[in-house]
Amino acid sequence: MSSSIANSSFILSTILLTFLVYQSKAQLSATFYATTCPNASSIVRSVIQQALQSDIRIGASLIRLHFHDCFVDGCDASILLDNSANIQSEKDAAPNTNSTRGFNVVDNIKTALENSCPGIVSCADVLALAAESSVSLQGGPSWSVLLGRRDSLTANQAGANSSIPSPFEGLSNITSKFSAVGLNTNDLVALSGAHTFGRAQCRLFSNRLYNFSGTGNPDPTLDSSYLTTLRQICPQSGSGFNVANLDPTTPDTFDSNYFTNLQNNQGLLQSDQELFSTAGAPTISIVNTFSGNQTAFFQSFAQSMINMGNISPLTGSSGEIRADCKKVNGS
């Protein structure tokens, strides 16, 4: 009898443990700051609204910070940490160096939040909220941002070098990197749609303009008149740091034109155009759906942003709430 009681209590504790593990994954909540910092979302939005007045690119830059953060050890604001005695900054990783931007706006948001609710809102949540505001302020969808992430105590520069998808990679590699963080093909296509606004430096796509894959010719999937335009922006002997619009049709508006551009062989990055031009790829039908139905794109994008924001957050008593997003508390 006693062994069966022990047995059932063991089963019960296993069920409880399983429940706790799942619960810890689901600790993020849209109402996390409802009592402690009820204006958090509107504070973030108003700082970004202000920043957009002088820098129309800032929305795209901010959403990219959230993306590059979440792909490296989860959405924990590790990308925001500067170099220190103990930290090799992710800002110096190849996908980020001389490329990621908007850190000053993140600092402005954090300062405004600290003035209103000191010690409450994490830098990781700042990035998640900033991504939503950036999209909705430039014509895209709104969504209910899940909150309650905490900030990492360290960074992972090597992880940033290996885990963040590259514009030069093939579709199968990129799909694998998404899969590694629990995101599927629909998430991949939807989130790539963030390239409906923002800019990219010539060095990230000039390989397509002159000598693609060592052929001595341009990428055959690049529309010829678009090629001419891009060669003017990015001369072969240029610095590589000139920028081109990711979406040549509506460069500063969040819409579904990105997908129509792909159908017209006007994707800027190799990683963009591959979604439509890789023979037999499961991404093609999704591009076609989003091109013809902006509502479907917006709904998928919002859900995929929530999915991405759920990658391995620190919750409960893990990590900390940084006072300054650039450094660990007490450093």
UniProtKB/TrEMBL annotation:
Site location (Transition state stabilizer): 64
Subcellular location: Secreted
InterPro entries linked to this entry: Haem_peroxidase, Haem_peroxidase_sf, Peroxidase_pln, Peroxidases_AS, Peroxidases_heam-ligand_BS, Secretory_peroxidase
Cofactor section: heme b; Ca(2+)
GO biological process, any: hydrogen peroxide catabolic process
Gene Ontology MF: a single term: lactoperoxidase activity
Binding site for heme b: 195
Keywords for the protein's UniProt record, in alphabetical order: Calcium, Disulfide bond, Glycoprotein, Heme, Hydrogen peroxide, Iron, Metal-binding, Oxidoreductase, Peroxidase, Secreted, Signal
Disulfide bonds listed in the record: 37-117, 70-75, 123-325, 202-234
UniProt-annotated binding residues for substrate: 165
Keyword Secreted carried by entry: yes
Residues that, per the record, bind Ca(2+) 2: 196, 247, 250, 255
First-tier enzyme category under EC: oxidoreductase
Function of the protein: Removal of H(2)O(2), oxidation of toxic reductants, biosynthesis and degradation of lignin, suberization, auxin catabolism, response to environmental stresses such as wounding, pathogen attack and oxidative stress. These functions might be dependent on each isozyme/isoform in each plant tissue.
Similarity annotation: Belongs to the peroxidase family. Ascorbate peroxidase subfamily.
Name of protein: Peroxidase
Gene source species: Theobroma cacao (Cacao)
Lineage, opening ranks: Eukaryota, Viridiplantae, Streptophyta, Embryophyta, Tracheophyta
